[in-house]
Amino acid sequence: MATRDYAKRGRKPRSRGRRAAARPPFPWLRLVLVLALITGFGYFLWSIQGASDDAPVQPEAEIVKPQPKPKPKPESALPEKPQETWEYIETLPEKEVEVEVPKQQLGGPYQMQCGSFRKQGQAEEMKARIAFMGLESQVRRTQGSNGVWYRVVLGPYERKRVAESDRHTLQRGGINGCQIWLWN
């Protein structure tokens, strides 16, 4: 089969026998309906105007304003306002209220533990993640009844509020589950 060159083939010549697109017929029915509506509306307005010209003109009724009623004279005036006396104004400065406020004991220094691992490498990795957040932590080796544990600890903190602030910093960085305890 021979290859064809479609790019140089050119266009087909137009046939002269093709018929022009037919136009839709003029909407005579719509034109008649619109003219009938306009004529009817004009007749309606003309009849309203003629009805108002033919109607007898009635005189306008006089507007009667009601006369104000005379005010009765006050026969008895209100009694004078009594003088108020308040006892507490004189007695309050003489009173003393004693309240016992227990002294708040400072809980002592706090520490925050963010992890406890069996392998020291995992604890060091947690310490490095905390260091990237700008906080200093320590890895402590503890011997428990069930083996050796490596704890990642931050602190000591004088106030619990400072420890909670650091815990929120760690939570924003993706380290959750840190616990705040009293320092042992």
From TrEMBL:
<keyword id="KW-0812">Transmembrane</keyword>
<dbReference type="InterPro" id="IPR007730">
    <property type="entry name" value="SPOR-like_dom"/>
</dbReference>
<protein>
    <submittedName>
        <fullName>Sporulation protein</fullName>
    </submittedName>
</protein>
<dbReference type="Pfam" id="PF05036">
    <property type="entry name" value="SPOR"/>
</dbReference>
<feature type="compositionally biased region" description="Basic residues">
    <location>
        <begin position="9"/>
        <end position="20"/>
    </location>
</feature>
<dbReference type="InterPro" id="IPR036680">
    <property type="entry name" value="SPOR-like_sf"/>
</dbReference>
<feature type="domain" description="SPOR">
    <location>
        <begin position="104"/>
        <end position="184"/>
    </location>
</feature>
<keyword id="KW-0472">Membrane</keyword>
<dbReference type="InterPro" id="IPR052521">
    <property type="entry name" value="Cell_div_SPOR-domain"/>
</dbReference>
<feature type="region of interest" description="Disordered">
    <location>
        <begin position="1"/>
        <end position="20"/>
    </location>
</feature>
<dbReference type="GO" id="GO:0042834">
    <property type="term" value="F:peptidoglycan binding"/>
</dbReference>
<keyword id="KW-1133">Transmembrane helix</keyword>
<feature type="transmembrane region" description="Helical">
    <location>
        <begin position="28"/>
        <end position="46"/>
    </location>
</feature>
<feature type="region of interest" description="Disordered">
    <location>
        <begin position="63"/>
        <end position="83"/>
    </location>
</feature>
